[in-house]
Amino acid sequence: MNRLNVKVGYYPTGYTMVPCDNGEYVKYSEVKRTVLNEQQREEFAKAAKPLMQFLENPKMFHPHFTVILDSTHAELVEGCVMIKDTPK
Asked: I need a surface site. Which of 3, 13, 45, 78 has the fewest CB within 10 A?
């Protein structure tokens, strides 16, 4: 048994268990999945805010505009219709 009193390899209903380096398993929801450290998050916010403020101009854009941005291009998308298929 590990610290969560779960036998290795046993997955209680509703939980996804993730193996740790020490051989124990923890709930997926307990795993810290932060990609950026605090300084990197601050730098990202500093870079993103001007674009967010640009989109906030109601004379140019309505709330359904979205920007898709990566290191090689920026795309301005106007959301007119969205259809989402839900798993059965």
From this structure: 13
